[in-house]
Structures are given as C-alpha cells and as structure tokens.
Amino acid sequence: MIGPGAPAPDFELPNQDGEPVRLSTLRGRTIVLYFYPKADTPGCTTQACSIRERGAEYSDAGARVIGVSPDPVKKVKRFHDKQSLDFTLLADENHAVCEDYGVWVEKSMYGKTYWGAQRSTFIIGADGVVAHVIPKVSPKTHDDEVLKVLAELGSTDK
Q1: What is the helix (H) or strand (E) element at residue 63, kind and residue range?
Q2: What's the rounded Cα separation, in Å, for the pair 63 and 31?
Q3: Domain segments of the chain: what residues?
Q4: What CATH number was assigned to the domain covering residues 12-147?
Q5: Of 44, 63, 76, 149, which residue is the catalytic one?
Q6: Residue 138: helix, strand or coil by DSSP?
Q7: Per residue in 10-65, pLDDT tens?
Q8: 49 in active site
Q9: Within 7-93, where are the H helices?
C-alpha cells in the first residue's frame, strides 16, 4: 500500500456515467480517494450515504470525494442513482487502480478466500502527493476520521 509522502499514482477511470476521470486533472484541490469493495452492499451503502449526508463538511474542508470500486460502470451507476449520491464514483473493473494503490488484497469470508478491494482511504494534497492514509476503514467512523485529518491538515484549497 502506498503511504504518505508518495506521489498519488495517476489513473483514468470511467465515472458512474461512463465519462473518463483522470486524477492528475484534479490537482490544485484536496482529494479524498476512497476504495470500497462492492456497490450496493450494506457497509458500502452506509459509507456512501454518510459521505453524501456530510458533503457540506467535505466541501468546507476544501476536499472533493471520489469513490472507487472494482464494479462495472453499470453497477456503479445503479448504486449512485439509487442512493442519490452527489459525488463521483469510479469503476475500476479490472482492479488496476486498486493494485496501484495496494488495496487489492486476498480476503476471507465464511472459510472462502477471494481477492477484492480493501476498504481504504487516501487523502491526496493539492500537489498530488498522498498526505494521509487510512488503511482499514470502518464505514461507520469513516467521515469522522477523514474530516478530522482534513482539519489537521488545514486544507484550504477550495
């Protein structure tokens, strides 16, 4: 997993509408890049809806939130629309970006092992450098953790 002080790996992925989004074009603004395992599951829904509810706090902190999952665009779009999300979700269907950030990991559930995205968040400074990493995120406490870090970093680049 990449850590603080590392340049954020650039990428281009389709958003919920199938339009390409390139990370490097967002420089000049703090980015909260969060990876989630699977759209429309309980934990991912809790996390996304909480971000939606606290969107003004992210905006006040000068941050733009972007979620990434290994789901296809169609599934990301359905999730985005169903939950009335007002921030960008990206589809990393071949999990290349998950791998670049080190969040594509072997997981285990009910005795079965499989590969998937680890719920993790990267706070990327306006300069494109990773300022903070939360390697294992709890959907219920995600916003409190991220907003505290944003306040500590004194993000003023709106």
Answers
A1: strand 63-69
A2: 5
A3: 12-147
A4: 3.40.30.10
A5: 44
A6: coil
A7: 999 999 999 999 999 999 999 999 999 999 999 999 999 999 999 999 999 999 99
A8: no
A9: 42-53, 55-60, 73-82
